[in-house]
Amino acid sequence: MATTTMTGSSTRTTPRRRITKPLAVVGLLALWLVAWTLLRGQDMLELPRATLTDLHHWLNDVNDSVGASRNSSPIFLYFFNEIRAVMDALVTFVQGLIAQPAYARPVPVLGWLGVVALVSYASWAFANWRVALLAAGGFILFGLQGLWQESMDTLALTLVAVFVSLLFGIPLGILAGVSDRFHRLITPVLDLMQTMPTFVYLAPLTLVFLIGPASATIATLIYAMPPAIRITAHGIRSVPAPPVEATDSFGATRRQRLTKALLPLSKRTIVLGVNQTIMAALAMVTVAALIDAPGLGKTVIKALQTTDVGTAFNAGVAIVVMAIVLDRVTTAASVRAEQGGGEPNPRIRRLLLAGFGLVAAVCSYLSYTYLWASEFPEGGQLGEYLSQGATTVTTWAQHNLADVTAAVKDGVTIALLNPLEALLAESPWWLMGAVIVILAALIGNLRAAAVAAVCVGLLVGTGLWNASMITLAMTLVATLLVVALGVVIGVWMGRSSRADRVIRPVLDAGQTMPAFVYLIPVVALFSVSRFSAIVAGVVYAAPVAIKIVADGVRAIPESTVEAATAAGSNTWQTITKVQLPMARQSLLLATNQGLIYVLSMVVIGGLVGAGALGYEVVAGFSQGQLYGKGLAAGVAIVVLGIMLDRIARAAAQRSDRAPSPNHT
Amino acid sequence: MRSIVSKRVLAGVSLSTVAALALTACGGSKIESTEAADSGDCGTFTIAINPWVGYEANAAVIAHVAETELGCKVVKKDLKEEIAWQGFGTGQVDAIVENWGHDDLKKKYIEDQKTAVNAGSTGVEGVIGWYVPPWMAEEYPDITDWNNLNKYASLFETTESGGKGQLLDGDPSFVTNDEALVKNLGLDYQVVYAGSEPALIQAFRQAEEKKEPVLGYFYDPQWFLSEIELVKVDLPEYQEGCDADPEKVACDYPVYDLDKIVSKSFADANGPAYQLVDNFNWTNEDQNVVARYIAQDNMSPEEAAEKWVEANQDKVEAWLPQS
Known about the structure:
CATH topology of the largest domain in chain B: D-Maltodextrin-Binding Protein, domain 2
Number of strands of chain B: 9
Shape of chain A: globular
CATH class of the largest domain in chain A: Mainly Alpha
Oligomer: heterodimer
CATH architecture of the largest domain in chain B: 3-Layer(aba) Sandwich
Order of helices and strands of chain B: HEHEHEHEHEHEHEEEHHHHH
CATH superfamily of the largest domain in chain A: MetI-like
CATH class of the largest domain in chain B: Alpha Beta
């Protein structure tokens, strides 16, 4: 997803505008401040917590009528019920293979030995022996943690969700790659699927697809399919023109052009899409557990009920390890798809394929037949060590760091968050709306301003304007922290490959560790507050920003950096005058992605004291009569995301055309 | 060079294959196929597991008795309340075994859709209210009277409460009138939404540990109360109907009779599992024992239930169907 957001057509800018832009922005902000001091507290459109608007009531009614028609409507009888049956069958089948007792056996078809052997074999065959070792180690770790069955349940559900995502996602992505019209049509749909909080559609899903694996899988694939579509389309679109033209000149049909030129040339990007789809599916593991999805997510949720940080952490580690294994294997597979395996002798490789295949088959047979190879041997204490370790660290931090962290929280809240929130939420809505639209026009373009105007209208329409502005203030502060971290750590990683090697796994963990695992530690350190919500957002969003900046810094040709050093620049000068300006594109992308990731944590923030939109969504999921309001809050989050994204993109396109700002 | 390495690898591969095959010959106990056990006349019994420990205690004990005494095949589904109620209509849930009020859901599913019926009290009483950590009740004895809350409002000020005292509200699953209460009782407080039970528990735990002030919404029975005995603040006493208009509430929360809800078809079939659920009745103290086993002694719900049932055979006898 990271690579796809900044593409699009560029717009015209005139030199006159560029000169006046900063002045105009400053002028606008000054006017706003003056108006704010005069009008503060008027027309804030606050809505008390228990009050519902007509729209919210109407959404409740719609939800109820769907539920009431479930047994009579033909859509249910012939469409949704069929989908449910197929999904249930798929998941139950894979679970029977690796996770749950099936086919009149007390254990699944394949035991631990068979799964480890097959996974390692596939990793080696499609990628290389290094990731095969990693995969074997990772899977054995699940067993040692005492989480073999839970891990396999999670893997089964993830595999099915990914399989279905790709089955539909890749063809749709190809279509979006070759047809501009379809691309324009589907982009907002994908935005909606990726930013609509899952809590909003969990309850309706169980109404339509009933409680069970089908609903859990569909919840997962709503979030996991968009990357497959987006990245496939991006891959097809970025195939360079010459080879395609060459194919055309040989008189290729459209079909041949696709299969002979476009698809082979975008193979690597498409595999990257598979990778991102897997990551997105794993991100849903805990949330899906709220509707009875089997696996590691349940362990996390149960542990949370007794505030057992250690057990939650243990299961969280298994999710992280699974994500890292699948990420490394698919990444290595994409490299292989592009460069080939590098074996000098295909005959030996064929022999090895057969030989190792035989070993894997024997292991599978053993795990099918014998109990020792089927059930992971008990007595692994690793899980207990991990959870005790996590508990100890949390308790220690709570006793020794809480004063420092409380001071940080107070500082940021008083100096930054409260003033910003006062400015955004206590301006009259029409003033704030006007500021947003004009700002979009000034730093972006007229089209962005038009989108912003529509979005402002929609936010007012949801009845949750005031909550949206409070959420916006938190989002902006969190994004600021994310970008700061992105620049500092990203530059460090970009300059030192050793730092990169050490930090990267930590970033992976930050991205894939379920937020539910660190809710309690975050509250322990920063108490129930908006700042806790910001911290949760930063933990999730900073890794993406850091990685993008690091890649950007590393992509700068070495000769440029060497030239600067030769000319007598010290490290600081090299960074500020050469590396950062040259990585400007990456900085913009990091900001944009950081923002989107922060927004996706708004609901988690609602669980630790953020209030505002996040809490409304959670409450709507928990209480039937608040459902409509929760849905409206979910829509408000989506609208905020689209508005900020479109403004940021327009601004980025515009600054692309501006000359480099440094002259020294 | 390369080909020698490959040959060695090949040799290794064939060796390990042979070794693996050899293992097959002498390898441990085989997996026997199992025939589905005959489950008697009870059949499958599906309990929703709502996400709190007290609920899990009820469910674990009922499930244990249903499995061991009645030979049922018990399926537990982890679901939030709202989704569990939905499951009655679709036949996916048989019973909810601890229900806190939920008059809106009762109206929708019992009266309107007629997919659910009430299966009587669990015997457990639920109390909702405002609580302070024990150190505060000791240091400021009169704080437990709501009339004195304004006197102490400044103690409860935080970065989140906008210059007023902070009243921490919790899990969004629970009905709260707190904003209206603050307004109607003229309290100088601001409701701050913690948003989840773990966040609320963590706030109380830290407040007691560091002797910091906290005033928050909590409920009993809850396993956390046996870790730290929070003290309830007395609001104006509840009178029948004083909470009729949510905007004008100025009284404490009612005491909830926590009841059991089952699906209509499950009740109509009147099988042994239904009769067990219908008869099930115990006390707050019983539930707290099992909840403590789960939350503090780290037992699995199954172990906890087994332990309690062994010690309380007489109570269990009374729940069994009379045939």
